[in-house]
Amino acid sequence: MVDAAALERIRRIAAAATHSRALREAVLAEIGRVVAFAAYVWPLTDPETSVATDPLASIPPALMPDLPRLIRLKYLTPVNRWTGLSGAAHLEVPAESLVWRELLHAHAVTDVASVVFRDRYGCWAFLDLWRCGGAFTRAELAFLDEVATVLTEHVRRCEAATFATTATARDPAPVVLLLDADLRVLGQTSPTHEYLTMLLPPPADLDPVPAVAYNVAAQLVAAEAGVDEQPPMARIHLAGGRRLTLRAARIGPDAQIAVTVEDSSPAERTAVFARACGLAAREAELLQHLTTGADTRTVAARMFLSENTVQDHLKSIFTKTGTRSRRVLLSRATGTA
After folding, report:
1. Phi, psi of 112, rounded to the nearest 5 degrees
2. Which CATH class is domain 4-161?
3. What pairs with residue 214 in β-bridges?
4. How many Å apart are CA 273 and CA 164, to the nearest integer?
């Protein structure tokens, strides 16, 4: 039987949350009252590509030097991959999992429970709980399913809130992180360290961990292996209203991986903004037309709608995005004044 009291506490936490990291931290404490686990990985994801972006994790210190390998194996493992989950699952046959067989079993992990936070607007996060000793039960998986049902809308809402401020000045050129085939860092351009520090602030006096870059590169490896067809790309909130887009590609004769980091284009921002705010397909299409500078008459002609219908859609968009004018709407969506 699902723990109703724990779910009610999670509902209250979720309803009051304004930031996804604080939300995840508070909910993890409640999950731990019901489901025992030794370690966890809970990243946000790009809603379209499902590539992990903002990681919240606690793994054994002995595994930290193997973090690039861990992420690479996670993306290459089809068993219970978050992109294919329809409900909470665990490793019924652990040896069938590449990441368990090649790495986790050596660290006394006996089972992994996985759950995805997905709705009709996209994939917003996934959670892996590691257990050392025994397996997760059906009742525990049922509880995690209920948690996902309660939380998904609020995780998305917190993502929408990151668009509430206008973006700061954009940098004119991308920065680059160079990785080898095993995702180990070979080099980086000078601004990369600053960006990585802002994305995932490290403890004092330590270099930042390029976890987001590892994830984008791992998605490239997974796509090349035929595990997942989504592009190796992720859009992530940096600070204020600023958003970055990371992409991975092979370069050079040694097939090294270059991860580029640059300010998201207005179109890239708008696509995430529309999903995060829960816009219907026609509303998202209308918003994209508005970003080109089209007026009501032009949008109506492009979408084969009456001008009154365009206005009705626009009112709905204002309500869902918490804006009251086209100027504010477009500023938040595109990141331009």
Report:
1. -135, 125
2. alpha beta
3. none
4. 10
Q: Which DSSP state fits 1?
A: -
User: 199-204: long-range contacts at Cβ-Cβ below 8 A with a sequence spacing of 24 or more?
Assistant: 199/54, 199/236, 199/238, 199/244, 200/54, 200/55
Write down the pLDDT at residue 204.
Answer: 59
175-264 has CATH 3.30.565 classification? no
Query: What tokens were used for 265?
Result: 């284009």
Better-scored residue on pLDDT, 82 or 239? 82
175-264 has the same fold as 4-161: yes
Q: What would the two tokens of residue 48 be?
A: 């379209």
- Amino acid letter, residue 317: I
CATH of domain 279-334: 1.10.10.10
Extents of the domains making up the chain? 4-161, 175-264, 279-334
Q: Considering only CA atoms, which of 68, 64, 48 is closest in space to residue 213?
A: 68
Average pLDDT, the chain: 92
pLDDT in tens, 79-130: 999 999 999 999 999 999 999 999 999 999 999 999 999 999 999 999 999 9
Closest CA to 240 of 307, 317, 135, 165: 165
Nearest alpha carbon to residue 17 among 204, 161, 228, 214: 161
Q: How confident is the model at residue 196 (pLDDT cuts 50, 70, 90)?
A: confident
